[in-house]
Fold:
Amino acid sequence: MTTREQNQPRPRGFASLDERRQKEIASRGGRAAHANGTAHKFSSEEARLAGRKGGETVSGNREHMAMIGRRGGEARHARRAASRVQSVPNEQNGGHAQGAGEEKKSSGLH
Structure:
């Protein structure tokens, strides 16, 4: 017997279905609710409040926010470093730097 079998019950009902089948059933339910006119549609005010509530919840987690900031800084650094490498003159393009808006000329063979 595996650890899962000892400690966790098997999923039942909707949870026991594979992901494709769950999506199929949920999609049918959504279409039926819209067809009956019973589907909830957010007003712009409701959507704004929901977004604010989610933002407050996420930003309350300092560790999570620090991780997001760190990843953004690392991504920016990588983009800037790559841009500097492209602008360095090299022998392949006649000793001229390739600017950000310039494309390398292709020989037409792909």
The radius of gyration is 26 Å. DSSP finds four helices and no strands in the chain. Residues 17-86 form one domain.
